[in-house]
Amino acid sequence: MKTKRNAQLLQGNQACSLGALDAGVRFYAGYPITPSTEIAEFMAEELPKVGGKFIQMEDEIAGIGAVVGAALTGTKALTATSGPGFSLMQEIIGFAAMTEVPCVIVNVQRMGPSTGGPTSPAQADIMQARWGTHGDHPVIALSPGSVLEAYTLTIKAVNFSEKYRVPVIFLLDEVIGHLREKVVLPELNELEIIDRKRPTVSPEQYKPYAVDESGIPAMADFGQGYHWHVTGLNHDETGGPTGKADVINQQLSRLFHKLDQYRDEITLYQTFDVEDAEYLLISFGCSTRSSLAAVELLRNEGIKVGLLQLQTIWPFPDHVIKDFTKNKKGVFVVEMNDGQLCLEVERTIGNRDLLSRINKINGELITPQEIIDKVKEVAL
Amino acid sequence: MAKNDKPNISIKYEWCKACGICYSLCPKKVLDKDEWGKPIIQDVDSCTLCRICQDHCPDFCIKIGG
Amino acid sequence: MQTTTNIENLFRLNRLPHIWCPGCGNGIIVNAVQKAIYESGLDKDKTVIVSGIGCSSRATGYMNFDTLHTAHGRAITFATGIKLARPELNVIVLTGDGDCAAIGGNHLIHAARRNIDLNVIMFNNSIYGMTGGQFSPMTPHGRLATTSPYGNLERTFDICKLAECAGASYVGRSTVYHVQLLVNLIKKAIENKGFSFVEAISICPISYGRRNKLGDAPKMLEWLKEHAVNIKAAQKMEPEKLKDKFLIGEMYHGEAPEYTQLYDELIAKLQKGAEKDVR
Q: What topology does CATH give the domain A270-379?
C-alpha cells in the first residue's frame, strides 16, 4: 500500500531539518543564532528519538569542530547558523575542505554585516560562501527558493557532501527559513540517499588520500582499525604531513578540481517560461518568488520574460548561464544584496550592457513591481 | 634476570639528538657521552634496569632489554 | 621503548625521528602517553588521539592510532564530536599550553563543565615554541620571550584549579622529570569515566630555556626535580618551604555524571516510547 505523505504546513527551517534527518544526518552540533535556531530546536527534540546526537556547543567554532569530529566517525553531521556564526566557522570549513570530511553548514542568511538585522532577510553571504575561508578550496553551495526545496535540497546537500567528501553550504535566508507553506514531501522510498565510499582494502594497504579516476578517496571511519591520520597540513596520499612541493602540487591540484568532472550532476536549477523569452531574470532563494510573480505579470502585458532560478550557487554554473542568456535582449539578476551573484553572471556573459542589477539592501523583500519597473525601463 | 646476564642496552643513534638527558640522569653512570654528546655505554654491569634513561629519552632511542 | 615490541607498534615508525628540538620534553610526554595506553590495555582500534596546533600537537602524526591534527585551540571541540557520536571510542587530546589555555580556553572549560569523557594532556613548556618563542598564558611573570622582550608583564593561572572549578572530574599534574608519576596520572585519567585533565610540565631548552638562561635539557630537568613537591607530601610541609615550589600528583578526583552516558540514557528512555514522562 503506497503511503502517500499527506500535505502539511511546514516552516522552511523545519523542512530543512526533516530533510537532514531523512538524508541520514544523525549528529547536530551548533550554537543558537537568529534566524536559524528552529533548526537546532528541531534537532534537539528529534535526533535522540532516532538514536542521533544533538549538542549545543559554547560557540560556533566549537559547533563546526564537533560536526567534523563526528563526521570522522562515519556519522552524517550538520550544523546551522547565520552570518555572524558563519564568519566564525570559516577556518574549520577550510579544514573540512582540506581534509575532505563530509559535512553540511546551513547558513540562514540575515541582514549584515555585523549584527545587522537579525530578523530581516538578506542574500549577501554569497561570496563568503565561496571565499569565506582562506586559500583555494573546493566548496558546494545550494540555495532553496521554497519550503519544499528546503527539504529536497538539504537531502542533495548531504548527498553531495558524502559523495564528493566536501563541505556543503546550504544558503537559506530568513524568508524561506521562517516561511510556512503547504508542502507534500516525497515518499521516503523515492529518495536517493548517498553514503560516502568506504575503503575496500585492508588497513595495511589503505592510503587515505589515494584516488582512482573518480578523484574522490575512499574514507574509513575512525574506530575501525585503519589508524589513519587526518591533518590540515599539506599531506601526501598516506595522510602524513609533507613539505615536498611536487607532492603538494599534485594533491592540491586534485583537491581544487575534484568537482570539475561532476559539474553537470552538481548544477541544479529550474526554469520558468524561458522557451520564448526575450528577457531573462536570474534569481535564487527568496528572491525567486517575486521574480516568478513579475514574469507572470509582465507576460500579461505582452513582455516575454523568463526566469532562471539557480539552486546551485557554487560551483558557479557558467555553462547554464551562457545557455539561457543567448540572444536575450536583457538579463536581470535579482538578489537581496548590493550586487554579488551578478558579478559572476557578468564574468560569464562578458557583456555588461546586456546585464541589469535588481537589488535591495534594506531588509525588505524585493517586490514584483520593482522588478517589473526595472524590466520595463529596458524593454520599453 | 639471572645474576650474570648482562642487560642489553640498545641505542638508536640515528634518532639521537645528543640532548644529554640519558647520561646526565643515569644514577649508576652506566652511560657516558662521546665527543658528539651522544651516549656511550661505559659500564654496562652497573645497570640496574631502572629504565630512567629509556623513560626520559625524548627521541625514543634507548631500549633496555634483558 | 619498552622491551616488549608491542609498544613500538603504537608508533608510526616510518615517521620517526620526530621534528622536535634536541632535549624538548614533548617526546618524553608522548612516550609516557604511549606507556599509559599500553599499560591500560586500550584497544588500539578503538582509540582516537586528537591534537590542536603547535609543537605538542605534531604528536598525533607519530602515534599509530586513528589520529586527528585539528586547528589551533580546537582539538577539544573535535574530540567532543568524536566522543559524543561514538561513546565507545577512547578519546585522548594532546594539546599545548598556548593551544589549550589561550585560544582553546573556552572549549577547555565547557568540556570540563559537561564532564564529557575526554582525556586531555596539556604539554606545558611555558612558550609558543612552533612560532619561535612567544610568551603564553603559562609563561611565568617576568620571563623573557620574543614578545615579552622586557620580561612578561602578565601572570599565569593555575590551569589545574581552573579545570577542576570548571567541572573536570579528574585533574593531575606531573613533569617530564617525574615520568612514572605522569604515566600513572594518565592511566588514572583514562580509567576515569568523565573529563580528565593532566598538565604535563615540559621543557623547551632551545627557545624558552636558552632565552632565559635556564641551562641545557638536563639542567632544566634538574630544576623540575628541585621545585616540584608531591601534593601529599606538601600537606605535611611548612608553607614557608613551599614558597617557590609547585605541586604535582593527583590534584582532584570527584564523581559526576558523564555527558555521553546521560545522552545514551535519554535515547534509551525515548526509544522505550516513554516520551510522556520525559517532559
A: Rossmann fold (3.40.50)
C46 vs A92, A223, A240: nearest CB:
A223
Contact assignment for C81 to A29 by CB distance below 8 Å: yes
Place of cell 638527558: B21
Cα–Cα dist B60/C212, whole Å: 27
Q: Measured between alpha carbons, how far is C14 from B57 in angstroms, rounded to an integer?
A: 19
Cell reading at C49: 588521539
Give Cβ neighbours of residue C277 (< 8 Å, ≥ 6 apart).
none
CATH of residue B61's domain is 3.30.70.20
C72 pLDDT tier (thresholds 50, 70, 90): very high
pLDDT digits (tens, 9 = 90+) for A62-115: 999 999 999 999 999 999 999 999 999 999 999 999 999 999 999 999 999 999
Fold of A8-190: Rossmann fold (3.40.50)
State whether residue C242 sits within 8 Å of chain B by CB: no
Domain C20-278 fold is Rossmann fold (3.40.50)
Provide the pLDDT for residue A1. 45
| Neighbour subunits, A (≥3 Cβ pairs < 8 A) | C
Is B touching A (3+ C-beta pairs, cut-off 8 A)? no
ipTM over 0.90: yes
Q: H or E segment at C268?
A: helix C259-271
Cβ pair C207, C233 in contact under 8 A:
no
